[in-house]
Task: structure prediction
Amino acid sequence: MPIRYIALDGHVGHNQAVLMVRENGLDVISKLRRDAALYEKDAGVYSGKGKPKRYGEQLNYQRLSKKYLKKSEQSGEILTRLFERDIFEQKFCG
Result:
């Protein structure tokens, strides 16, 4: 069975580790800090001048769209929700 993903702890899921993993054709699964500044892809129209804008609005954790909700599980008072979507983090994406 070919390996496609590597799971990294948030402590070692830094930019250099991600670059090394990506160079070997793998995708990274990692936990981010709660205060990570995540951004949506820019939805604007390219003006034709300069480098196209990469980052859109900063992701608002309180307004995550239900269309990205993949799983929701309640265990006692703890609600766990799993969302899946493409986002950017400036320190990783440059």
